[in-house]
Amino acid sequence: MLVVRAGATPAGSLQGRKPMTSSGDTTVKKKYPAVTLGLVAALSLAACGSAPDSSSGGAASDFTACMVSDEGGFDDQSFNQSGKEGLDRAKSELGVKTIAVESQSDADYPTNVDSLIQQNCNLIIGVGFKLAEHLTTAAQENPDIDFALIDSSFTDADGNVVELDNAKPLTFNTAEAAYLAGYAAAGTTQTGTVATYGGMAIPTVQIFMEGFAKGVAKYNEDNGTDVKVLGWNPDDPGSGSFVGNFSDTAKGQSLTELFLSNGADIILPVAGPVGSGTIAAVKEAGDDNNAIVWVDADGYLTTESIGGSKYMLTSVVKGIGTAVYDTVQEASSGNFTSDPFIGTLANDGVSIADYHDWSDRVPDDVKEQVEVLKQQIIDGTLDVSTPYDPS
């Protein structure tokens, strides 16, 4: 399978032809929105995935599962990468064909979605809330194609939720796991100050920050301490620290430097690839007592190539890859439903990652209490709900 960045055409591809499909059919399906056929053809030809091994056989080999990233791209060590790993697993284990296209900016979303429609994808998965309006319109205009959307409901241009038989939201109650990470951070900090910032002030980001702050507050309540949280005020969420996008790593670095200068030694960046700016700032600070709490994926594993692993206290993990795999499996076997998936601690849809190299620095009583709190959340005896929870 080739991952194609919007606007890129590999050498040897031909522009101007009708888009090729897995079946050889060149019929142009209903487009969303109308774009120049030449551009669609170029993107379509460039994105064609390789066929699965012939030994896979069965109906799955005639099924094409497709994915479009948001601006972070599939190498963001976080959100999009997790989704792509789920798609790759489906290709390997289920024998389905796959196509993935990357977006460089918001302007790429409608073109990328349309390119996948033209290639006769049976299932199109969008990564991130920014694709909500585009996928909703596409699902309405192409009822014969199934759609899934990670981290958002399907919505119209005014932000109103739209329910469609061929549209499945894949959402995650990350406040539950972020609460545990906040408690662990509060119990591990050496300075008595931790911090967080977000990419944009949207519910899927704010839910991490709120859950994290509530976990810190719980630690303070249990232990009579006063660990402070910079970058987020539960009483005034509008005053939180935000980059404004999911691409400005320099701003992520400068925010982290500001937090460090104000005494924070553990930082939670909720900003996808912008989190690499936090890693850069922590590395430059040269203090091995500074740590990071990653999001979406286990940062210890995904940031090794950029030197982030040694700073990972833990991560607030979404089971994005598993949700993608399960959705492809359901759709390819003819069992697709539009029932929303909500990942929780109870169904392993969200989790707190291992402490890895920081395990010896997290006090044993803190580790034990995190497990107690986890079970209380699962049992429903501990309420960690936030205004940003998926419903």
Automatic annotation (TrEMBL):
Example of a GO cellular component annotation carried by this entry: plasma membrane
Coiled-coil residue windows: none
InterPro entries recorded: BMP_lipoprotein, Peripla_BP_I, PnrA-like
Membrane protein topology class: Lipid-anchor
Residue span(s) of domain ABC transporter substrate-binding protein PnrA-like: 65-378
Keywords recorded for this protein, A-Z: Cell membrane, Lipoprotein, Membrane, Signal
Alphabetical list of CDD domains matching this protein: PBP1_PrnA-like (cd06354)
Region Disordered, residue ranges: 1-27
Keyword Lipoprotein among record annotations: yes
Cell compartments where the protein resides: Cell membrane
Signal peptide annotation: none
Keyword Signal: yes
Family label: Belongs to the BMP lipoprotein family.
Protein name (database record): Basic membrane protein A
Organism: Actinomyces ruminicola
